[in-house]
Amino acid sequence: MSRLASELHRLRRSPWEVLCSALVSCGLVLFSQLAVAIVPRLLPSISLLAMLPVAGLVFLAAILVGRFWRRFIGVAASAPLFVLFNVLFLWGVYLFVIRRDTSSLLDMLINAECALLLWGLYRILSGDPGIVAYESSFLEEAGCKDFVDAICSSEKYPSLSRVRHCNCCKANVRGYDHHCPAFGNCIGQKNHRLFMALLTGFVVAESTYTMCSTKYITRCITSGTLITENHLSLNMVIGTMLFSVLQVVWQVVFLIWHVYGICFNIRTHEWINWKKYPEFQMKEQPQSDFEVKFVNPYDKGMLCNIREFLKP
Questions:
Q1: Run of H or E residues at 165
Q2: Over the stretch 186-204, which tens digit does the pLDDT of each residue have?
Q3: Of 27, 122, 236, 291, which cross-links 287 as Cys (Cβ 3.0–4.6 Å)?
């Protein structure tokens, strides 16, 4: 366990580096959000649906410009802090601009969703994904000499067949799915359910924010206060709404993929690097002259995998 602790200690940064990273991440969030808010200002005559691809291109351009300046000044940003500040920014726009036109029930709902997102980010960032130390008794019980023996001998030790090494964390993780830069941690056996809940929470919270911001924009149009409304706040609401819709689009696709992986008992890392793990590749077993069945030797059915995923 001391060897694992020393490896993780090398990954830690000094307080000054963390502060600089936080400032850069916060500045990048403000710059990208303001860049998206310029879209409705420059293109007021087009529909919100037509603004979506333009807003997506502007957001990507802002990220690329921010990345260039980040490298120019030699300060690294933090993806988890970028996600955190985006949540806080959307929450702030809601509290100071949109909230007055929202019902009390919807107001309680969106505030609870944002608070739960912050709590979930903290839990997944600071939690253990299922790291297994080199000297773990888990290996001794299975009769493995080292992790090379445990990882390669998947047929002999099926319980260790999914202990994978993460190059980002420099650690071995049981039930390794992938390393998530946005959440700053590996996704493994111990935090996979939290990851799925957090991903679903982002989709729900951003969808709720989109609904609230749409009501605000509709109220400004129908009540005739569109001209007298503060242009900066209105453009900020439209910009954050476009950002939320873009986020929901790719997050729903990402969520569907992970649900598919749970149902068919496959990890993201195994799918991307399937040539490294031939035991997870699809094999053909001819049943008759006219029938071929594709079988994954680790797939025991959709229902069994879902029960295993939900089992505490």
A1: strand 163-166
A2: 999 999 999 999 999 999 9
A3: 291
